[in-house]
Each structure stands twice: as structure tokens, then as C-alpha cells.
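Appendix B, record 7
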Amino acid sequence: MSWALVACNKKETEKVEGTQDSAMVQTVLPILNTIVLPEELGECSCKMAASETDFKEGKLLYADDYGNTAYLKINGEDFVFTLDESFDLENFDRKLENEKYLLHIVHQNEKSHDGIHTYRGQIKLVDKKTNSTSVIPVYAECGCAS
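C-alpha cells (predicted):
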């Protein structure tokens, strides 16, 4: 059996050969989209963007309320993840999961100033149904607004 992969517009297409009728299976890679900050977020939060420039422009990919709830938009659909574990502010490592996706967020503290922690790292996003994986570099700031 041979496999052919063709990537176009962030989609993977697998062609399975070996029968008279070739089967085409199309898999969409999980993509994080820009979110609108929810009103429920409050003063203490952790926010992430693809770069420091995107962060300053408000193009956020992730936000959480520093305790219970994380907000993301994946492939155009809004998701709320429940946070069920604490994390270390020095070495941020968190796994989140719902019925469709698994997220693994890892980054290291770059600096802290006036109660705001700055991080650089990545989000690994896995579609649980297709096992398609995206790794997104992120810039993050976590803390409480004064």
C-alpha cells in the first residue's frame, strides 16, 4: 500500500491506493484563531498570542482567568476549557482537554515586573479524532492588572 500526502491551505490529504476505487481522506489541521476577550475574564489572567507584536495589537489566541476557565477559538469554533490543576509561574506547563482537543501549553518565564510574568513557549494542539497536530509558538503575559 502506498500513501501520498499533499498539503495545501493548511489541510492534509491522504490518498489510499491499492483498490480500484481510491479513497480520499481529508484532514484539517487544528488551527487557533484570534479570540475576543470574554467579559468574565476579570483582572487576573493569562493571555497568549502568536508573537509579542500580535499580543500588543490584541490578537490573542488564548486567555484564562488564572484559575478555573480557559478560552480559545479552534478552527473558527469557540471553546471553554475547565482548568483543573495549578501551575508553576516559573515553568508554565499545563494540559487541557475536552471531547475534541488536547492542548499542551509549555513555556518558560522570561521576566517578571510589577506582578506581570512574561513567557515564551508553545501550544501543542491535537485533534483527538484525527490525531492531527499543530504546534504554535506563543508569547504570553500572566498576572493581575493594577
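Remarks on this record: The longest helix spans residues 52-56. The mean pLDDT is 79.
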